[in-house]
Amino acid sequence: MKNAAIINSLGYAGLIPFLAAAWAVLGERTLFQLSPALIFLTYSAIILSFLGGALWGKARELADGFLSVGLLLLSNAIALAAWLMLLLGEAFIMLGLLIALIGYATLCVAEWFSASEVLGAVGDSYLPFRLTLTSIVCFAHVIVIYAVL
Whole-prediction pTM value? Predict the structure, then answer.
């Protein structure tokens, strides 16, 4: 895979804000004088939107067809869901966190089912990496959901 070391490093580094904010939520700490749950939600919305945009890019590379249209629509739905999470804010944080959790799981499933056309042979190493990242991110969401109950 091209730039595999950079991709892996950035992917794992991207987990740090999730884990730090989840840790702060559990410990009832503040981060930068802000609610760590809100920091977690906003970071989650940004990353979810980023991943949706990446799906858009992958869909553009495909020939016109059902898969391409489906991925384009999903990428836009994910971006809108991330925006909704931000609009819900701290007042409805539980709903925002649930939307994010569903969004990450949906993206992961979409990548697994479209991998042969979208990723080709690269998917053999990329998909386990993405599954690991997504599992950790979803686990962090479950922790934060539990903590704000």
Answer: 0.92
